[in-house]
Amino acid sequence: RNMMTDPIADLLTRIRNGVHVERPFVDVPFSRLKAAIVEALQREGFVWDHEVVESGNHRVLRVNLKYGPNGEHVIQHIERISKPGCRVYMAVNEMKDIRQGTGISVLSTSRGVPSNREARRQGIGGELLCQVW
């Protein structure tokens, strides 16, 4: 089986595709970084929650997708920013609002995986993993 070059891009693609066909949840191979990204999306209101499901001899991260009361897509756009071949870093003073504050980015920092809002409050920059609106 082919070695996945970018597991984070895979996570985002599975979420994007799942929302597109209005699935209640998507399953992705578990990693701590992916769980931390999903937790940031959860804190910012873009997914309901997540759970770790034991599947045979490996763990799966199940992301429960979120829709509005009339089935509106809460996630309209989700994209990878920093990529394995081209990393993107952001100092705290360079962080801009995403879509007038309706969107967020998720960062990897020395102190965990915050949203851009949380990182700004904590006064830390880091690697810009993805953005969502």
Quick structural gist:
Keywords: Ribonucleoprotein, Ribosomal protein, RNA-binding, rRNA-binding. The chain is an alpha+beta fold and 133 residues long. It has one domain (7-132): Ribosomal Protein S8, Chain: A, domain 1 (2-Layer Sandwich).
What does the model show?
By secondary structure, the protein is an alpha+beta fold. The chain has a single domain, classed as 2-Layer Sandwich (Ribosomal Protein S8, Chain: A, domain 1), CATH 3.30.1370.30. Helix content is 25%, strand content 29%. The chain has 3 helices and 7 strands. Strands 4, 5, 6 and 7 form a 4-stranded antiparallel β-sheet that branches. The longest helix has 14 residues. The chain is globular. The mean pLDDT is 96.
Q: Could you name the key traits of this structure?
A:
single chain; 133 residues; alpha+beta; Ribosomal Protein S8, Chain: A, domain 1; 4-stranded antiparallel β-sheet; 3-stranded antiparallel β-sheet; 3 helices; 7 strands; 25% helix; globular
Topology of this structure?
Layout: H1 7-20, E1 25-29, H2 32-43, E2 47-55, E3 58-65, E4 78-80, E5 89-90, E6 104-108, H3 116-122, E7 126-132
Antiparallel strand pairs: 1-3, 2-3, 4-7, 5-7, 6-7
